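Q: Could you write out the predicted structure for this multi-component system? I'm mainly interested in how the pieces pack against one another.
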Amino acid sequence: MPVNQIQNGTSSSSSAAAATNGCKWPENVGIIAMDIYFPSSYVDQTDLEEFNGVSKGKYTIGLGQLKMGFTDDREDISSICLTVTESLLKKYQISPVDIGFLMIGTETIIDKSKSIKTVLMDLFKDSGNTDIEGIHATNACYGGTASLFHAIDWIESSSWDGRYALVVAADIAVYASGAARPTGGCGAVAMLIGPNAAIVLDRKVRSTYMANVYDFYKPDLSSEYPYVDGPLSNQCYLQALDQCFNLYFDKANRNRDELLNHNNHSEQQSMIELSHFDGIIFHAPYCKLVQKSVARMHLLNNLRLQAHDPSRFDTKLEKYRNVKLEESYNDREMEKLLLTLSSENFNKRTDPSLMLAREIGNMYTASLYACVISFILSDSVENLTDKRLLLFSYGSGLAASMFSARVTKDKAILSRLMKGLTDVQPRLQQRQRVPPTKFEETLNLREKTHNIAPYEPTGDVSSLMAGTYYITDINQKYHRTYSKVQ
Amino acid sequence: MPVNQIQNGTSSSSSAAAATNGCKWPENVGIIAMDIYFPSSYVDQTDLEEFNGVSKGKYTIGLGQLKMGFTDDREDISSICLTVTESLLKKYQISPVDIGFLMIGTETIIDKSKSIKTVLMDLFKDSGNTDIEGIHATNACYGGTASLFHAIDWIESSSWDGRYALVVAADIAVYASGAARPTGGCGAVAMLIGPNAAIVLDRKVRSTYMANVYDFYKPDLSSEYPYVDGPLSNQCYLQALDQCFNLYFDKANRNRDELLNHNNHSEQQSMIELSHFDGIIFHAPYCKLVQKSVARMHLLNNLRLQAHDPSRFDTKLEKYRNVKLEESYNDREMEKLLLTLSSENFNKRTDPSLMLAREIGNMYTASLYACVISFILSDSVENLTDKRLLLFSYGSGLAASMFSARVTKDKAILSRLMKGLTDVQPRLQQRQRVPPTKFEETLNLREKTHNIAPYEPTGDVSSLMAGTYYITDINQKYHRTYSKVQ
C-alpha cells in the first residue's frame, strides 16, 4: 500500500492537483523498516590474534573487535544487495510497485559504469515497476548516508508521488594481508524510507564536513584492496567529528523549537547539548575508534558549554580549557583522561550500538546503519519510544555528516520495525566459525580471481543461509548470473 | 549573495523558524547558470574516415559527427571537473560560501572509493566553506541527471538553507581501437541550481525507466574502455524512450493545469502532446541516433493521439496503427518513413541542440547538458523566453528519464545565463585540429599509462587554454597533483 494515496502517481488528476496546495513536506519522514545481511562465515578475532602471532588482545581489546564476517567468491556487492533488498520487501510485506526511489551507497565497485541499482531492478521486473529514480552514490563509507539524504529530500520534494524510497548501504571490506586485515568485514543494510517513520530524521540540522584528503582510497582499480594511511585516517575521522559536532549544535540551537519537547518549558530554555541525546551512534571502522570519539565529544561539548557559561566547564578538564583542537589529535594523555570521563556516557549511549560492529567488523557504508540496528535491538519498545539519536557518518577522502533523529512515540510503528529485526540475533548465532587458515585461503582466492572473466565460482553454496543470492557464473563478457538459496 | 537570506544557515534563529511555515518549495527551481569545458584538441571525423579507410561519410553522415574532442595524459576526470567548476563560479561571480550542495555525475572512475567531489573541495578551501552536501553518482551517461534531480530535491527539502546547488556532469569517453572509437568525446558541464532560474524544471512530471541490461558497461576495471554491444544499446535507448515518453505524457496530462498557460483557455482544454514543446533535447551518443529518436517520437505521439481520437492518427503512418513497439526496433522501412515524416520537427526542435555534440562527440553524462547549452546558443533572448523544453536522459545499464523545463520569461535572468556562454563558440574555434596519427598515438599513450603509479605526464601543457587544470604528477601512492594554466 502506498504511503500516500492522494499524491500517488496512479491517483486521479483532481486529487493530485489538490495535493499541490498547503503544507508540502509530509510529516515524520525517516526510516520505516530496516534489514541487515551479513555473511554466514566469520573468523574469530582471538583466533586471528594467535594465527597472526600478535599480542593477545591486540584485535579484541586494541581494536575492540570480536568476530569478522567475510565472503568467498560466491558473493559480490550485487548479490548482497539483492539479498538484503528482497529480504526487506518480503519481511515487511512491501509490494515492489510501491517503491518510487531506490539508491545504493557503496564503495565496492565491480563496474565503473553500470550501477548496482540496475541489477536490483530485477527484483521489480515481475511487478512491472520500472519507474524508480536513483542510481548509486560513492564516497568511501559515506555513500549510504548520501543516499539516505537524497531519499529524504526526494520525499520532501515536488517529485514525490506518495511511494516509498529504499536505501541500500552495502560493502565488502577486505584488506591486503597485514596489519589492516583484521579491520575488514562485510554487510548490507536496506532501509525503507517514508513518512510516519519509526526513526524520524530531525529537519534543518544536518551538518557536513568535506575535504580533499588521501587517508583511505582505492586508486588501484585492478585490486579489491584500499590504500590506507591509518594514522591520517584516524585523525581525519576526529577532525571531521570536531567540525560536524560544532556545526550540528550551531544548527540545532538555531532550530531548537523544532527539536525540543514543546510541552516542557524548562527544556526550551536551555541550550541543546550532548546530554540531549539518548543514543550517540557512529560509523564504526573499529569499535575502539568509536569509544575515542565519544571521549572527544566530551571535550567538544565542554568547550561549547563554557562558551555559553564558563562555570559549566568540567573542572577535571581544566588543563584543556584553551586546547587547540587541530593540535590535539595525537595527545594521548588528554585522550586517556577523556576516555575515563566519558566512560559512563559511552556505556549508556553508544556501547549498545556496537553489537553488530563487534560481531561482523567494518561494513563501510552499512556500518552506521548496522549500529542503528544494534541500538534498536538493545532495548524494548517501551524504553526506545521517543528516544533521541545523534548520528555521525564518516567516509574517507573525505565526506562526513552529523544528523539526528527521534524514535517515534507510536509503539505500533516502532514494533513493526523491530519485528523485522527479530531474526538478527539468531542469524548471528547460526554463522559458521572458520579457522584463520581457511579465512586466509578464501581471501587469497578472492584476490587471485578478482575482476577476471570468464569465471566460475567454487565457493560452497551449502554454507549460505536461505534467501541468499550467489554468483553462479561470470561469462567472458563479464555478465554476472545469480541464483538464490531456497 | 545567497538565494534566500531568510532560510540561510547564517540567519537568526527567529527568521529561520519563521521560514518553516507556509509554502515550502521555492519558486522556479532549475538551472541558473551553466558552463562547459571541452578539450583544446580535436580530430576531424573526415580525417578519421580517411585514416581508418572507411567509406566517406561513414562517421560524418552515418553517425552525424563532425569533430571529436580528446585529451592527452595531462587531463583526467578530476582536472576537467576542477576546470569547469572554477570557471562557472568566476564567470557568474558566485562566492564559494554560497554553495551548499555539490554533486558530480560521472562514469570516468579513477578511484573506487574517493569521490571526485572531494577533490573539488579544494576550490572551496580558501573560503572556509566545508559544509557542502553531495558526493558522486554513477550509472553510465545518467549520473548528471541523477545529480540534477538530487540537487533540485535538496532545494525543495527541509534541509535547504538558501544556498545554491552545483551539479557537474563530466566524462572522458574513449573506446578501444576499432569501430566504436569515432563515437568518443570529452566534456564537462557545470550547472548552478536554485530558485528564480533561467531554465525552470517542471514539477511532478519526471518519468523514469530502469532495467538490468548489459548493453554498455565497464567491467574490466584496469581498462579505460567500455564493453559495448552496439545494436543492443541502440535498442535499449529506443526502448527506454518508448517507456519514458508514455509515462511522461501520462504524468504531464495528469498535471496539465500546472504545465499549461493559465491565461490560454483553449490550450487548457487540449491534451499535452509533442507539439507542446519548442525544443526536444536528447542525450546524444551520436547525432544520428538522436535523429532516429525524434523519428520514433513521431510514431509514439501518433499512437497516443489515436488513443484519444482515432482521427488524429497520421494517415501516412496507417500501416503502423497497430504496431507492436517492442518488435519494431529493427524495422528499417518504418524508421525511414518516420525519419521523413519527422524531419521538419527534427530541424526545428532538435537540430539546434546538437551543435556541441557534432563538434565534440559523446560527453557521456555531460552530453544532454551540452545539448541544452547548444539549444540556448542557437537563438536570441527574445526568441528563447518562455520556450518549453522536453529532455531525455539515457544511461546504459540502464537508467533513463524524461523531464521538461520552461525557459524563464524574465529576460534579465535568461541574459545572465547566456552571457556566461558567449565564449563557447570562440573557444570551439580556438581548438587545435590534430591529425589522426597523433590522435591514435595519444590514445595509445593513455591506454599504456592508465592507472599506473608513479607517473609523470608528458603531454604538452602549452596547448591547453587559460584556466585549465592539468595533472603535474601522480606519486607512487597514486596521489594526484594539479596545476592550472594561468
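A: Regarding packing and overall arrangement: Chain A touches chain B through 89 residues (CB under 8 Å).
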